[in-house]
């Protein structure tokens, strides 16, 4: 029998690890659990936002979908941090590349996230918060890429509230500002981590590029981001 600890996650708290990998797609969570975790158990299936816990290199690690967009990410991250007792979340996401030296399949570690969302304005603060990665997790993500021999870039990404932006010049403006890539959740995750005094890092894989026209299929998006998954699992170990 599940103890329902929060509004949208039905689980026993002790079934969730202290560190959670969060892809947007719950089927990517299932893929990670089935391919990388030993003895995975399903701890959440409310709304099919699948969450699993197993062991990786002998340490307990969980993986759960976040859904798409800042509202969905914020809801689940908030419940995991404040009601389930999770200490650290690693977003395992896809992103659209803006710069010419980013190619499909490349890894981006998000140091910070510019956003068109109002999330940072909702906190009672005399300043607008700057969504920023946890330094130790950023360092550990870099170390994991280097240990595995995978190339990576570290920098500022864009977390957009919309996938289809009515401002057609938006990607060009982002590119001119040196922003690396566009996705839809990192700023929300970083603000939730800051507000909860917890840790977060966003590790992204480029699924397509805005200016050079590279693109991966939906099936490849679901299954072929194994470099990013391996980096994320290695990054999780110190927090497990
Ligand atoms: O692959 P995920 O983690 O879902 O991330 C990206 O993909 C979705 C859009 O296709 C958005 O959620 C965006 O942030
Ligand atoms: O272009 C893209 C690719 C992935 N995710 C996004 O939000 N945008």
From TrEMBL:
GO biological process, alphabetically ordered: nucleoside metabolic process
NCBIfam families attached to this UniProt entry: deoD, PRK05819.1
Gene: deoD
Catalyzed reaction equations: uridine + phosphate = alpha-D-ribose 1-phosphate + uracil
Protein name: Uridine phosphorylase
Domain Nucleoside phosphorylase: 18-227
UniProt enzyme class: transferase
Annotated EC: 2.4.2.3
GO cellular component, one term: cytosol
A GO molecular function held by the record: uridine phosphorylase activity
Keywords: Glycosyltransferase, Transferase
Stored HAMAP family: Pur_nucleosid_phosp
InterPro entries registered for this protein in UniProt: DeoD-type, Nucleoside_phosphorylase_d, Nucleoside_phosphorylase_sf
């Amino acid at each position: 029998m599940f103890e329902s600890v929060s509004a949208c996650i039905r689980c026993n708290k002790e079934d969730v690890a202290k560190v959670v990998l969060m892809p947007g797609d719950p089927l990517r969570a299932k893929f990670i659990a089935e391919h990388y975790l030993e003895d995975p158990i399903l701890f959440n299936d409310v709304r099919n936002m699948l969450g699993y816990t197993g062991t990786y290199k002998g340490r307990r690690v969980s993986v759960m979908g976040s859904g798409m967009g800042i509202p969905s990410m914020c809801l689940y991250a908030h419940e995991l941090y404040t009601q389930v007792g999770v200490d650290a979340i690693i977003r395992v996401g896809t992103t659209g590349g803006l710069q010419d030296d980013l190619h499909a399949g490349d890894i981006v570690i998000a140091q910070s996230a510019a956003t068109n969302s109002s999330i940072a304005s909702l906190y009672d603060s005399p300043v607008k918060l700057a969504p920023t990665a946890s330094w130790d997790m950023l360092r550990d993500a870099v170390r994991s890429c280097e240990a595995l021999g995978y190339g990576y870039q570290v920098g500022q990404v864009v977390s957009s509230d919309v996938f289809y932006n009515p401002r057609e010049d938006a990607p060009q403006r982002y590119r001119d500002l040196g922003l690396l890539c566009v996705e839809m959740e990192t700023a929300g995750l970083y603000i939730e981590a800051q507000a909860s005094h917890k840790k977060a890092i966003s590790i992204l894989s480029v699924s397509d590029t805005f200016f050079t026209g590279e693109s991966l299929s939906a099936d490849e998006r679901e299954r072929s981001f194994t470099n990013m998954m391996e980096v994320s699992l290695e990054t999780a170990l110190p927090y497990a």
